[in-house]
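Section 3.1 - Work completed
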Amino acid sequence: MQDFLTFKRMMTPIIIQVLFWVGSVFYVVYGLYTMTQGGMAIIFGLLMVILGPIFVRVVCELIIIVFRIEENTRK
């Protein structure tokens, strides 16, 4: 608890993990919804289901890299 109160332990990486899961679920659900519209929307929905979570993962990893650099710099 002391590390948390003195900002030695960052809370943001945990929040980023939660945002990853929320973003991934959003893309999958919205992609499935888009696929029900028919026509070309099936392809766009399928791409959203496949590429959406990958995109969210890459963005989250880029943010986490900043925090890892900070941790290594502190050491």
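Second construct:
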Amino acid sequence: MDSATVLIIGIGAVVTAITGVAIYTAFGPPSAQLDDPFEDHED
């Protein structure tokens, strides 16, 4: 394969992996440990 194709596939895989981890952290089981800063400092 051409080196540019390999680079594009590699960058796409990294972006997809980061997006997957972010969605899992935001909506999966680890989200129970997240704090809402707006609820911590109510007026």
